[in-house]
Specification:
single chain; alpha+beta; Peroxisomal Thiolase, Chain A, domain 1; 10 helices; 9 strands; about 20% strand; globular
């Protein structure tokens, strides 16, 4: 399958948006392991903004920037949101409430606990009636989410916004499901190869492959990729940032997704 990348965004430690991430991934700026707070979700009305949690704000931040860089209208895009953990903070809050006398759970917490909450906030904020998919595929959420997004774009012949995001989980669950930092990325994918784009991707999925996935060469970024499922995108993002031809192996379950990158 072939697809164009028209917009891209990143948000994570030392990577506050595509401009800063591009400088770090190109080696023009030194990467610093510093937490970054995403901006408020300006697309949401005040009530929704107050109800939304950190995970939703993280996902919407990269989605907004990718659409802006692509020059596309968010309301017309189909979306695929992928997360391994969902909103672990909300789940921790609900588990605490259930363990206390009365066991009363806030309606807002219950509302935000569903895995598709960020995608739902996105469609509400932009008044979108386009298709919206939310995936949770454990450590393979980025690879399988990218495969789903590209497949939909190619088969349906329309652009798709793909967003991958994960945050640390607090409380007891976080001690067994360890995620060390917040990270998110977004890609605007277009099957129309004649459109102006950052790069073109050629994807091949091999369900039988047992090869290891590619990881960043930089020690700190490699640790980030190991510690956050959404950050498994960093090898692909590095190719895009450096505007170079490359081949990236992305882990799936089963198998592997091989992505050939050709800058435009």
């Amino acid at each position: 399958m072939k697809i164009s990348v028209r917009g891209v965004s990143v948000w994570g430690p030392g990577l506050a948006g595509w401009a800063q991430a591009q400088a770090c991934l190109q080696g023009r700026a030194e990467w610093a392991d510093q937490a970054q707070i995403p901006p408020p979700a300006a697309a949401l009305a005040p009530n929704e903004r107050r109800r939304s949690g950190p995970v939703t704000r993280l996902a919407i931040a990269v989605a907004e920037e990718a659409c802006a860089l692509a020059g596309v209208k968010p309301s017309g895009l189909s979306v695929v949101f992928a997360s391994a953990n969902g909103d672990g903070g909300v789940i921790d809050g609900i588990l605490k409430a259930l363990s206390e006398p009365g066991g009363e759970v806030s309606p807002t917490q219950f509302h935000n606990s569903v895995h598709n909450a960020p995608a739902g906030y996105w469609t509400i904020g932009h008044g979108s009636i386009a298709s919206a998919t939310a995936l949770g595929c454990y450590d393979w959420s980025f690879g399988l989410g990218l495969l789903k997004a590209v497949s939909e774009a190619v088969v349906e012949q329309h652009p798709v916004l793909f967003v991958a995001y994960d945050q640390p989980i607090p409380g007891p669950v976080g001690t067994v499901r360890v995620t060390k930092a917040s990270f998110a990325c977004a890609l605007v994918l277009d099957p129309d190869l004649s459109q102006q784009a950052i790069a073109q991707l050629t994807l091949c999925y091999d369900p039988q492959s047992t090869e290891r996935a590619d990881m960043p060469a930089h020690d700190g970024l490699r640790a980030l990729a190991v510690g956050n499922p959404a950050a498994r995108s960093l090898s692909l993002l590095t190719c895009l940032a450096q505007s170079r031809n490359g081949s990236v192996k992305v882990a799936c379950q089963p198998g592997q997704l091989k992505v050939e990158v050709s800058p435009c």
